[in-house]
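Fold these two proteins, one after the other.
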Amino acid sequence: MVKKLPTKADLRAALEQETRRYLNKGGKVEQVPAGATGTDPGKPHTFQSSRLFSEPRSSRTFLPEVVAAIESRRSQLKRSRRSVPKRSRLPQPRRKTIYDDFGEPIRKVWVDD
């Protein structure tokens, strides 16, 4: 059995009922001006307080001879691999439907391709 999801009208009515119940018990709603946020205005933003790159920039060490050795090994591996010819698929029988002049199926036969 599929459970019925509440509609927007049902959700609004439930929220209104909960709000009335809260106010009847003595609760109070605080008016917040538009544009106010829940963050502390004196505290800096998280992305401003953390530094991404705290250490100084380091110089890079270029290793052209190491890269050349790796590339030569890679090319030797490519040459040493024998290309395996793909096996040709043997013809497999397949089922074919025979239709009449009006497009209705009459029978199914096995055909070798």
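Now the second one:
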Amino acid sequence: METKVAIIGIIVENPDSVEKMNRILHDYGKYIIGRMGLPYREKNISIISIAIDAPQDVISALSGKLGNLPGLSTKAVYSKVNFKKEDE
């Protein structure tokens, strides 16, 4: 199986969607390398970055599910290199 390393950037403008976002991230937890969140209190938003190592379709599905939540904007940036990963 080939994987890519990617960053998913998330802007949270609606705090009511955070619980659903966290559930979705939990569901994809085996692929997530790390997560960093920054509250931007002056603008009343949060900025989150997710580092992930997964097949491209998994990364796209995660980004799409997050982007469909109200008040969340997402964008995925992919590495140009494919990595070989042993099937689990």
